[in-house]
Amino acid sequence: xxxxxxxxxxxxxxxxxxxxxxxxxxxxxxxxxxxxxxxxxxxxxxxxxxxxxxxxxxxxxxxxxxxxxxxxxxxxxxxxxxxxxxxxxxxxxxxxxxxxxxxxxxxxxxxxxxxxxxxxxxxxxxxxxxxxxxxxxxxxxxxxxxxxxxxxxxxxxxxxxxxxxxxxxxxxxxxxxxxxxxxxxxxxxxxxxxxxxxxxxxxxxxxxxxxxxxxxxxxxxxxxxxxxxxxxxxxxxxxxx
Length: 241
Fold this sequence. Notes:
Largest sheet: 7 strands, mixed
Number of strands: 13
Distance between the termini: 5 Å
Shape: globular
């Protein structure tokens, strides 16, 4: 299997509009962070995309990913969803694409993007819309998607419940953990960096990558503060396991 981190930034992205801090003006390409997304690729080249952020088109081009076979949504916040129309280029060539996620997320996406999911809305001749089939998942109920074992995990996100996903054999140890981390101090909806490190230690994954990163910490600076086995993710990071 292969994990490709398409985007590793928080909802503002990095650089932040109007900011001239050291990270936003950094020359290190690892400090340029688009909104969070990833692709998990199986040995048979089947690919599951996780979330559709606003930069999705640019992310797929940068990673040279020409197609995906399914989409997993963690939740429906704008920075995780609002690139959904970029799936149009994939479905024009490959047909209907299945989307999976928490029931309330699927419901909100259907409502928010009615032009996609309302069968009565037909695009004018010569134009197109994404051809998508939305399927709600149940937390704790494992499913097989494109030949991969997927276990949805209910997690707190402030007052909301979102899904994380375990992909791969559910009875073996975790090889790679990707977890959000914002600041060195508590945040109401995300893990802090110390809390994320505690989670990594509790899970005991071979490698842990921190994502949803802000412009407060540059890649090199943050790397120096983390224990062995825990690293900052960055756009374009590829992990084979």
